[in-house]
């Protein structure tokens, strides 16, 4: 589903990604962990061309990300959820979810609405359809953000620390939605510090450090038998 070959990304003189090779299969759930500043967000952002690689190729569902047409096509297929929910404050929850399908996919309003209601029900927020984002808790807003991404019927979902900005008691409700997505076979790439969740839901765990994939394997294998000293040091601080 995602093929990344020899990916480099620099900002000016700062080399952030230094040769990433990564193949992600359909329905695979890949969790990325690593120290702050190691390039995790940059790697995710290269997967939907929010960042342009300095070198190397990124290919999603057979589409090579280079020309503008390809990029737009891929952005329709790859949903992204950020640490900050970025809902449109002047729109209701329902309008937030209906917007992209109508604008980008030219879906009729009534169809977009019934789909939005279905997705809201799925994330447990059917009763919030007519509320504005500020009337919701952080956890509820993040579940709306997930529903909004799903409304485009993406083939891949990218999550960049989706629970890091939440109060602790709201983390679980967001992880529950992600867990159910994984169960239904969504291809997912998740940057998170939730190690218990990573272990439970991840098919594969990547440890990224200084712009490289330093180590990878099943979460169980990496957590229990890390091979690299830097992985051991990192895990000793977070587990
Ligand atoms: P992580 O998500 O692992 O914390 P990031 O991918 O956000 O790491 O950042 C990796 C490095 O790239 C950091 O040193 C960060 O300061 C730098 N960086 C990220 N985005 C930009 C940017 N737009 N311009 C310049 N430097 C950036
Ligand atoms: Mg980050």
From TrEMBL:
It comes from the Bacteria. Gene3D superfamilies: P-loop containing nucleotide triphosphate hydrolases. Residues 2-235 form the ABC transporter domain. The keyword Nucleotide-binding applies. InterPro entries: AAA+_ATPase (IPR003593), ABC_ATPase_HisP-typ (IPR030679), ABC_transporter-like_ATP-bd (IPR003439), ABC_transporter-like_CS (IPR017871), MetN_ABC_transporter-like (IPR050086), P-loop_NTPase (IPR027417). Pfam families: ABC_tran (PF00005). GO terms for molecular function: ABC-type amino acid transporter activity; ATP binding; ATP hydrolysis activity. Keywords: ATP-binding, Nucleotide-binding, Transport. Belongs to the ABC transporter superfamily. This is Amino acid ABC transporter ATP-binding protein.
């Amino acid at each position: 589903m995602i093929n990344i070959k020899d990916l480099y990304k620099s900002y000016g003189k700062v080399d952030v990604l230094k040769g990433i090779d990564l193949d992600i299969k359909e329905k695979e759930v890949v969790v990325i962990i690593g120290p702050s500043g190691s390039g995790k967000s940059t790697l995710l952002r290269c997967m939907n061309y929010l960042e342009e690689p300095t070198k190397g190729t990124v290919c999603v569902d057979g589409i090579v990300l280079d020309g503008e047409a390809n990029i737009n096509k891929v952005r329709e297929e790859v949903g992204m959820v950020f640490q900050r929910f970025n809902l449109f404050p002047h729109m209701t929850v329902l309008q937030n979810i209906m917007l992209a399908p109508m604008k980008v996919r030219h879906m009729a309003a009534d169809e977009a609405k019934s789909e939005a209601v279905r997705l809201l029900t799925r994330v447990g927020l059917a009763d919030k359809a007519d509320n504005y984002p500020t009337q919701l808790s952080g956890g509820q807003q993040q579940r709306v953000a997930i529903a909004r991404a799903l409304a485009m019927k993406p083939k891949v979902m990218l999550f960049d620390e989706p629970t890091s900005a939440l109060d602790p008691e709201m983390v679980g409700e967001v992880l529950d939605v992600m867990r159910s997505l994984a169960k239904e076979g969504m291809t997912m790439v998740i940057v998170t510090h939730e190690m218990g969740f990573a272990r439970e839901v991840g098919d594969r765990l990547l440890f990224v450090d200084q712009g490289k994939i330093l180590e990878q394997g099943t979460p169980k294998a990496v957590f229990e038998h890390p091979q690299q000293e830097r992985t051991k040091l990192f895990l000793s601080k977070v587990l």
